[in-house]
């Protein structure tokens, strides 16, 4: 369930309370008159089932409370209440199947920001991938997959496509368009220094057969990307974040970027182009599958209410 807190102008408290009381899947409704100081007004709180959250948020936004006051939604792990149990039973559908669009937009929007933290993780992941290539270490390649933060912007692209949110598409596209080239440039510099120090040579890269899968593009490259994208979006919409680790290990995005850099440094342009193709195929597959999952979820829910403007 979710804990909902709404800051409401005093003159609209009655409307907000009526809305929550009439809504299936809402219980523990509380009014704290005059408790809000900035912005001034009342505070209305309630417990909301995951199945009802999207509808409740849309209704509150129709009252313009996201602009006149404020709406906060946070997950509650444990609730001991017969009233909450009845609300869960009354709400249609299953909590695991419910998509809370505002939550998803906030999550993907935050992860799609081209921030210093995002760039740092992506650069470190590319460096790890390059080390995995020159040391012929699949374990290091897997480590690079896990460290890489690129699924966030890719998921944001899928959400932006389904919701037709140009701002989210631009933000995620910018993060990827700046992030990968910059990470690869830093990795190229580090790889050149390693080569000059005699840590590896062209023969080392050519004999690294355990990591050949990184640049070898085939039908299963797209199949794995599609499956991983679908699993990743299901994990995000159902709040089963543990499944995301499996998604990170499944896709060959960061390893492909790292391999492309190493191959370019040693002059193996066929492998470099193959790695770049692997990167593109994986990114496209992830976005398409993630968008497909969201489209199916929207059809299953049977409505598509406009979200608050933010």
UniProtKB/TrEMBL annotation:
Keywords: Membrane, Transmembrane, Transmembrane helix. The chain crosses the membrane at residues 116-135, 141-162, 174-193, 213-235, 242-264, 276-296. It comes from the Bacteria. The keyword Cytoplasm does not apply. This is Integral membrane protein. It comes from Kutzneria albida DSM 43870.
